[in-house]
Specification:
3-stranded antiparallel β-sheet; about 35% helix; 8-stranded parallel β-sheet; about 300 residues
């Protein structure tokens, strides 16, 4: 299987898109590696950092995309994950809490300007955009607005959907290990799955296969998207790797941990590995995989399949 479309790639094959030392050679190499692994298009993902740093990293990616048809044919755009995320423990995940902030139209526009037309998706927490102004403004400009790293209430989710929210980023992750048994962000989002596309990381670690199977049964097939949330370690095996300014440790089972070992920090799996998890441990068909990993994300981005 090939032609996959991945909405969330922080890095791959030893290359970190959040690094200030990206080179033309590295960008061509990572695009070749993605194609070899069956992934045709991606959104290169920039995560939360001090704003000036985020802007420079976005500019760097935009410059590489503009520099080469080989790069732009693989990197369909940029996904900005932050800085408008929850700063609460668990929900903030691997993002630095002090660099998160309330949503601002001016800051959002500066992120888009840095991307020179290449920012295609922004993940934010609806509770940090209470008036919905940023969600509305981004959606008006054709940007895919996703919720994530969030503990939004049902009312906040509904309001955000009304303003243009169209996706929830990697459900089942970026939340504390212990949450209320019934009223929690996972249940709230699943209850809105008729109105909202939902992405999942299907590496077998972020969401254990029995839970993933249950979640997938709750979501209309047209609204499921599988993402890797890959970091530079993807496809390389156990070891220590970079994600932005952090060190990530990949264990023998392929799980990518923050240095403190309290939470995952991105993912070290490739799409072919996720196909194996989905088919062998979740019982998913080839047709469903093609829809969730190619057709649905392409539709969300408005690109041809």
């Amino acid at each position: 299987m090939s032609g996959f479309v991945d909405l969330q790639v922080n890095g791959y094959g030893g290359v970190d898109f959040n690094s200030e030392s990206l080179t033309d050679e590295a960008m061509h190499r990572v695009c070749g590696r993605l194609l070899d692994d069956g992934t045709g298009r991606i959104l290169a993902t920039i995560i939360t950092a001090p704003l000036d740093t985020m802007l420079q990293r976005i500019r760097n990616l935009a410059r590489f995309i503009d520099s080469s048809p080989d790069i732009s044919s693989t990197i369909a755009g940029i996904h900005v994950e932050g800085p408008f995320l929850s700063d609460q423990d668990g929900f903030v995940g691997a993002h630095p809490p002090k660099a998160t902030m309330d949503a601002s139209v001016d800051v959002a526009n500066s992120l888009l300007e840095a991307g020179a037309g290449h920012v295609k998706m922004v993940t934010l927490a609806p509770e940090r955009d209470l008036a919905g102004r940023v969600t509305c403004e981004l959606a008006k400009q054709g940007i895919v607005v996703a919720a994530g790293h969030s503990d939004a209430s049902v009312d906040q989710l509904d309001a955000a959907i009304d303003q243009g929210l169209s996706l929830f980023t990697h459900l089942g992750n970026a939340c504390p290990a212990l949450v209320p048994r019934h009223d929690n962000i996972i249940q709230r989002v699943l209850s809105r799955s008729e109105r909202l596309m939902i992405s999942f990381i299907a590496d077998g670690h972020h969401v254990p296969p029995p839970a993933l199977k249950n979640y997938l049964q709750c979501v209309p097939s047209d609204n499921v998207v599988i993402v890797t949330d890959a970091i530079s370690a993807a496809g390389l095996g156990p070891g220590r790797y970079e994600l932005s300014d952090q060190v990530v440790e990949v264990d023998e089972d392929g799980a990518a941990w923050s240095a403190c070992r309290t939470h995952f920090a991105g993912c070290a799996s490739t799409f072919p590995q996720m196909v194996g998890v989905l088919k062998e441990r979740v019982g998913v068909s080839d047709q469903q995989i093609d829809q969730w990993m190619r057709i649905n994300p392409s539709r969300l981005l408005g690109i041809s399949v």
